[in-house]
Amino acid sequence: MSIELLILISILASAYAMVSAKRMSALIGSFRLQSLLLFLLTFMEAVKGHYWGLYAVSFLILGIKVVGIPHFLFRMLREIKVNENLGFLINPQLSLVASLIFTYCAWLFAGQVFPAADTVFRAFATIAFSVLLTGMFIMIFRLKALAQIIGLLVMENGIFLLAAATSGGMPFIVEMAIFLDVFVSVIILGLFVYRINELFTGIDVDQLNRLRG
Amino acid sequence: MSILFILLVPAILTAAPLLVRQNRSLGYLSAAGYFVVLALSIRLILRFLARGAAVSLFNFIYLDALSLFFVFVIALVTFAVALYSVDFVAREAAGGAISEKKARLYYSLFNSFALAMLLVVVVNNLGIMWVAIELTTLVSAFLVGFYNSKDSLEAAWKYIIICSVGIILALLGTILFAYALLFQAGVKSLNWTELIAAAGTLVGNLLKVAFIFILVGYGTKAGLAPMHPWLPDAHSPAISPISALLSGVLLKTALYAILRYSMIVNQCLGPAYTGRLLLLFGLISLAVSAGFILVQKDLKRLLAYSSIEHVGIIAIGFGLGGPLGTYGALFHILNHAAAKSLMFFGAGNIVKKYGTHNIHIIKGVLRVLPLTGAMLLVGIFALTGLPPFSIFFSELMVLAAAFLKGSYLVAGLMLLFLSIIFGAILHHFSQMLFGKKPADQPAESEPLTGKAAFIFLLFFICGLGWLMPGPLNQLLLSASTLLRGR
Predict the structure, then answer these.
(1) Largest CB tally within 10 Å, which of A171, A202, B217, B433?
(2) Does any CB of chain A come closer than 8 Å to the CB of residue B150?
(3) A4-13, A74-83, A162-171, range with greatest mean pLDDT
C-alpha cells in the first residue's frame, strides 16, 4: 500500500507542477510524467489482482498517454513554432495557491460523498478530484489552445484515477471505448489547432472572440 | 433484426462517398436510406406495442418505449435533413462555396453523425452511451467548422471544448453511479437493465451528487442554460441542414441520457429531487433565451436561442412530472424537432439567397422566396405555440400540469417568458418576411427536394395538432408510464 500511496502523492505533485508551469514544454512534460505514474499504479493493480483486463488498460495508458499523445503534442509544438509562453490569466504562484485550496475542498467533498470510506480511500478520491479540478483550472486560465487540450487530458486522468479507486476500473469494454474516444478527440482537437494557427496566425484562444450575444 | 438494419444503413452510407462520386446521387441515396430507417423504426414501434421491451445482440441493445420514441424522432428529422441536403449541398458545390470533394465529405460526416445519435438511444450500456454521445460531438464539430472560416472555426473550437468538459463531468457521474451500484447492490455492470433492476436498493447522498454531475454534464450538450454558450455559436456558422440536425435531435439525445439516469434516481429517492433540479434548469433556460431572443440580430442565432427555450420547456415538463407533464414533454420533443428543422431549412434558404445572417438587412422574404416565406410564416406560428399546431398542444399540457400540481409560480413564469418570446419572434420575423422586396433580389423558386422536405415536416407540424395516430399515442403513453416508474 505504501508504494501506491507514494505514487498517488507524486501524481498530485505532478498536477501542482503543471499548474505552476511557465513554459509549454514543461506542461507537456509534466503531463507525460503524470501519465507514467498512472501507468505504474494501474500496472501494480493488475499484478496484484492478476486481472488481464487491467494489464491491457495499463499498456494502453503507456502507449497512448505516455508515448503517443505527448509525442504528438511536442511535434505540434515544433511544427507551428508556438511561443513557449503559456499566456496566463492567473500567474503561476496564485494558481498554485488555488490548487492547494482545491485539494482541501476535494478532501471535504470526498468525506461528504463517501462517508463510510477509510482514510486511504478518501485520500485516493481526494487526489482524483483535485487532479480533475486542476485540469479544469488549466483549461480556463491558460490562453494557449494546446494548454486547453492538456487540461482536458488532465481532467481525464483525474476521472481515471477515481474509476480505479471506486470500482477497480469500469467494465473492460467501456474502458477501451473511453480510451479510444480520448485518443480520437485529442487528434481532432489537434487538427483544429493547426487550422486555428493558419487562420488566426497563432493559437491564443483569446483571439476567439468574434461570436457574441 | 430491424434495429440492426437501422444501424447498418447509416454505417453503409458513411462509406458510400468512397464509391459514389456525384454528390447529388449521394444525397438521393442518403434520403432513400433514411426513408428505410424511418419505415423500420415505425415497424419496430408496432412490434414493441405488440410484444413489449426487449434486449438483443448479447445484451448490447435495449429497446423500450423511450428509446423507440427517440429512434423515431431521429429517423424523422434525419430523413427530412437528408432530403433537404440533396439540393442544398449540390448548389453549394456548384456555387463554389465548398469543393466537390468536400461535398462528398459532408455526406460521410452527416451519416456518421446520424449513426452516433442512433447509437446513443439504443445501447443498453451507459458507458457505451457516454462514448456515443462524445462521438456525436467529435463528428459534428467538423460539420460546425465545415466552411473553414474564422467564425466557424471559433465556433467549432468552443463547441468541442465546452462539450468535452461537460462530457467529462458526465463520465464522473457515470462512475459514481457504477460505484453506488457496486457497493450498495453488489452488481458490477453499467447495463441500464441491471441498474434499474437494482435501483430500489440504492440510497444516500452519493446518488444525489452523481445525478448533479450527470445533469450538468449532459445538460451542457442538451443546451440547458447556464451551460449553453456553445449552442448559439455552433448553430450559426454550421452548414444549414446540420443546424437543423443539431437543434432538432442532438440536444434531445443528451436529454435522453439525463432521463435514463433520472429514472434510476427516481426509483430510490422519489421524483421530487430530480424534478426540482430539472425545473430549475428549465426555468433558467427560458429566462436566458427570452432575453437573448429579444435583442438578437442574427437569424440563425435567434433560432438557436429558441431551441434553448424549447429545451427549457421540455425540462420543465419532465420536472413537473405526472402523467400530463411527462406526456407533454415527450410530445414536445417530437413537435419541436419537426418545427425547428423546418425553420432552419427556411433560414438556410434565406441565408443562401441574401448572403447575410443579419435580421435587419433581410427584407421581403415572402416575395423573394415565396414558398420559404410561407413555410417560415407557418413555422413561427407553430414555434411560438399558436393553435392549431402541435406545439400548442404540448405546451398546453406542460402548462396544465403546472396548474394541476399547484405550481402557480412555475406556470406564471413560464407564461411570462413565453409571451415575451412570442412578441420578440413575431417582431423579428414580420420585418424579415413582409418588408419591402429589395430591388436587386429577383424572386426565385426553391429546388424540388427542398420543397419536399418542407412539405414532409409541415405534415407533422399541422397533422399532429389535429390528429394523434393511435400507435404514436400508445408509444408516448407507455414511455411516460416508464418515466414515472409505474
Answers:
(1) B217
(2) yes
(3) A4-13
**d(Cα B92, Cα A76) in Å, to the nearest integer?**
33
Q: Which ipTM was obtained for this model?
A: 0.93
Question: A89-105: buried (b, 16+ CB within 10 Å) or exposed (e) per residue?
Answer: eeeeeebbeebeebbee
Report pLDDT digits (tens) over B63-75. Answer: 999 999 999 999 9
**Rounded Cα distance, B158 and B234, in Å:** 8
List the one residue out of A32, A36, A24 whose CA is nearest residue A76: A24
Other beta carbons within 10 Å of A5: 13
Grid cell for residue B370: 415565396
Residue A82 belongs to some domain of the structure: yes
Q: Compute the distance between CA of residue B346 and CA of residue A45 in angstroms, rounded to an integer.
A: 57
The domain total for chain A is 1
Among A136, A167, A205, beta carbon nearest to B165: A136
Whether this model's pTM surpasses 0.80 = yes
A213 in any annotated domain: no
Between CA B464 and CA B335 the distance in angstroms is 8
Whether residue A84 lies within 8 A of chain B, CB to CB, comes out as no
Q: What is the mean pLDDT of residues B25-40?
A: 94
Is 70 exceeded by the pLDDT of residue A1?
Answer: no
Q: What is the residue range of A14's domain?
A: 2-207
Rounded to a whole number of angstroms, the distance between the first and last alpha carbons of chain A is 53
Average model confidence (pLDDT) for chain B?
A: 90
Q: Maximum CA pair distance of chain B?
A: 73
Average pLDDT over residues B168-174: 91
The DSSP 8-state label assigned to residue B18 in this structure reads G
Q: Indicate yes or no: CB of B127 within 8 angstroms of CB of A112.
A: no
Separation in Å, CA of B165 to nearest CA in chain A: 7
Tell me the angle at which helices A24-49 and A2-19 cross, rounded to the nearest 10 degrees. 160
Q: Tell me: the pLDDT tens digits for B221-276?
A: 999 989 998 999 999 889 999 999 999 999 999 999 999 999 999 888 888 899 99
